[in-house]
Amino acid sequence: MTFFSKDKKSALQAIETAQWIAFAPVVFQATRILRNSGILLAVQESKSAGLTLEEIVEKVNLPHYGVRVLLESGLGIGLVTVNDQKYRLTKTGHFILNDELTKANLDFIHDVCYQGLFHLDKSIENGKPEGLKVFGEWPTIYEGLSQLPQHVQKSWFGFDHYYSDTAFPVVLPHVFKNGTKKIIDIGGNTGKWAVACAKHSADAQVTILDLPGQLNVAKAKIEQLGFADRVSFQAVNILDETQQFPKGHDAIWMSQFLDCFSDAEIVSILKRCHEAIDENGYVFILETFWDLQRFEASAFSLQQTSLYFTAMANGNSQMYHSDVFKKCVYEAGFEVVEQIDNIGVSHTLLKCKKRQ
């Protein structure tokens, strides 16, 4: 990856970027309100004709002053243009309004992270998710996930599922091509992977390992879909090294899961996977590594997402560089026998087997 190997900006571009950083919270909130208030939608629907400030005020039913300052902010941000006193949507404004990836990211940052990021400095100092206290007193966000406000849960799962949903159809054939039937799904969340397996293969049997609160959500969903006879559940605190994983399965699956843990914790979890799986079994790891991205914007997004883990989730994990992650895999006694990059939005699939 050469995205970050040299300083590509001129001095003028650099100072412009510095101002963007200084005003970044204002840019973010103004953009969010321009989207949510209907202002951008009204401008979009006017197509090439554009709308005057007064016409926009009438359509969105907001105070003239408020619409004016938001639109002027939107000009500087690059969401709208103005000519002959008529506002028109830019390409950036179009993506803010219509792109599902951008929606998922923006809602996640606002609903889940924004308030808590105020405590990022303390999280860095203490190695704990100090920002999580804006929602409750849990050691990590995972214990409190089922108790978060409804809109926060919606944005959290919307963010998580957007990335995984595009990857699952691609990776299912890779998981089942070796005659896999019995799978452990560690960190099964709402049961989406278990359901995908059950739909993909009539022989699939999945055991979900997760915290009790998450298992309750998954159970309800799986029962509703009629797969209760092929999906079982085991409550486990993954960080408790005394809690071993069940044996007798063909494969262990972890999707967007190990990034929720520190280097040492990843090694601990993988060592228990090593004990649970036999010599012919595989461990499949689906992750987003920032150094393996096709586009700089994707790498940037993952690097910034790491600070969600720092301030909100657990205080000690991140979106990893693949070299750091694969060192943990090797330390736990596995080798990567196959690596498939560029899956879905940004994923890599690591197929791991015990080292001989």
Automatic annotation (TrEMBL):
<keyword id="KW-0489">Methyltransferase</keyword>
<dbReference type="InterPro" id="IPR049480">
    <property type="entry name" value="BVU_1015-like_N"/>
</dbReference>
<dbReference type="InterPro" id="IPR036388">
    <property type="entry name" value="WH-like_DNA-bd_sf"/>
</dbReference>
<keyword id="KW-0949">S-adenosyl-L-methionine</keyword>
<dbReference type="InterPro" id="IPR016461">
    <property type="entry name" value="COMT-like"/>
</dbReference>
<dbReference type="InterPro" id="IPR001077">
    <property type="entry name" value="COMT_C"/>
</dbReference>
<dbReference type="Pfam" id="PF21212">
    <property type="entry name" value="Dimerisation2-like_dom"/>
</dbReference>
<dbReference type="Pfam" id="PF00891">
    <property type="entry name" value="Methyltransf_2"/>
</dbReference>
<feature type="domain" description="O-methyltransferase C-terminal">
    <location>
        <begin position="178"/>
        <end position="334"/>
    </location>
</feature>
<keyword id="KW-0808">Transferase</keyword>
<protein>
    <submittedName>
        <fullName>SAM-dependent methyltransferase</fullName>
    </submittedName>
</protein>
<feature type="domain" description="BVU-1015-like N-terminal dimerisation-like">
    <location>
        <begin position="17"/>
        <end position="87"/>
    </location>
</feature>
<dbReference type="GO" id="GO:0008171">
    <property type="term" value="F:O-methyltransferase activity"/>
</dbReference>
<dbReference type="GO" id="GO:0032259">
    <property type="term" value="P:methylation"/>
</dbReference>
<dbReference type="InterPro" id="IPR029063">
    <property type="entry name" value="SAM-dependent_MTases_sf"/>
</dbReference>
<dbReference type="InterPro" id="IPR036390">
    <property type="entry name" value="WH_DNA-bd_sf"/>
</dbReference>
